[in-house]
Automatic annotation (TrEMBL):
<keyword id="KW-0812">Transmembrane</keyword>
<dbReference type="InterPro" id="IPR012422">
    <property type="entry name" value="Cyt_c_oxidase_su4_bac-aa3"/>
</dbReference>
<dbReference type="Pfam" id="PF07835">
    <property type="entry name" value="COX4_pro_2"/>
</dbReference>
<dbReference type="InterPro" id="IPR036596">
    <property type="entry name" value="Cyt-C_aa3_sf"/>
</dbReference>
<protein>
    <recommendedName>
        <fullName>Cytochrome c oxidase subunit IV bacterial aa3 type domain-containing protein</fullName>
    </recommendedName>
</protein>
<feature type="domain" description="Cytochrome c oxidase subunit IV bacterial aa3 type">
    <location>
        <begin position="4"/>
        <end position="50"/>
    </location>
</feature>
<keyword id="KW-1133">Transmembrane helix</keyword>
<feature type="transmembrane region" description="Helical">
    <location>
        <begin position="25"/>
        <end position="48"/>
    </location>
</feature>
<feature type="transmembrane region" description="Helical">
    <location>
        <begin position="54"/>
        <end position="72"/>
    </location>
</feature>
<keyword id="KW-0472">Membrane</keyword>
């Protein structure tokens, strides 16, 4: 039978570092949230630039969407 080691995998009974798991999960959620905000803002700005016909105005809209998301989320 396997001996108990603190450096063994979790399947063998090693203690879990829950604080590190929570920090990693929170980072994952944050990166996912900002990735979605960036993609939605980019698509909205590209559509606005296509229909309004301006690169500069689309860039300003993208920046405004990202700043608004920063304050709302």
């Amino acid at each position: 039978m396997a001996e108990h080691h603190d450096t063994a995998p979790a399947e063998l009974g090693a203690p879990m570092d829950y604080t590190e798991h929570e920090k990693t999960y929170n980072l994952f959620l944050s990166l996912s949230k900002w990735g979605v905000v960036t993609c939605v803002g980019l698509v909205a700005a590209m559509a606005f630039g296509f229909f309004a016909g301006g690169f500069f105005s689309a860039t300003i809209l993208f920046i405004l969407i990202c700043v608004a998301a920063w304050f709302v989320l």
